[in-house]
Design goal:
The chain is mostly helical. It has 2 domains: about 5-85, no CATH class; about 95-140, no CATH class. Helices cover about 40% and strands about 5% of the residues. It contains 6 helices and 2 strands. The chain has helices at about 10-20, 30-40, 65, 95-100, 110-125, 130-140; strands at about 60, 85. The protein is elongated, with a radius of gyration of 19 Å.
Length: about 150
């Protein structure tokens, strides 16, 4: 807010100072919440927002990005109070499904579940899937007996 009026975007400025100059004077952990409050107060939606505080700044659809974020991120999501998330439409793979189901306590045949979920995804118009949606679908999944 205000970037168009010549004001520097706070989140981008502070994270750039951290990454480029190693400046650790500022606590960045509240930047995401601060950005949300500012946008809400200004009556602007998420589409107006840019940078590391956006809801999808750390949203990935490849298992490597989720398993090894340090290889893809200049700074971790948690540093700015954001979170790393799974968001996928068409790149649904068994590796990604395994990642989504890890630590869920659900026992699912991933090799059978993944194509079932991909087919459902196609049928429903490729809605955006996140970790919770994949876990809920795993609960609904009932493999056809051979």
């Amino acid at each position: 807010i205000g970037e168009r009026g010549g004001n520097a975007p706070l989140a981008e400025l502070l994270t750039s100072l951290r990454v480029i100059h190693g400046d650790t004077r500022f606590d960045l952990s509240h930047l995401t919440e601060l950005s949300r409050i500012a946008l809400r107060g200004a009556g602007l939606g998420e589409a107006f927002q840019s940078g590391p505080t956006t809801p999808h700044a750390f949203a990935y659809e490849l298992p490597g990005q989720l398993s090894h974020p340090h290889a893809y991120e200049t700074l971790p999501a948690e540093l700015v109070g954001n979170s790393r998330e799974l968001r996928v439409r068409s790149r649904l793979t068994t590796a990604l499904v395994r990642w989504a189901l890890a630590d869920s306590g659900l026992e699912v045949d991933v090799d059978a579940f993944t194509p079932w979920l991909a087919e459902r995804q196609e049928r429903d118009g490729r809605p955006l899937l996140d970790r919770d949606t994949i876990r809920k679908a795993a609960i609904d999944f009932r493999p056809v007996p051979a």
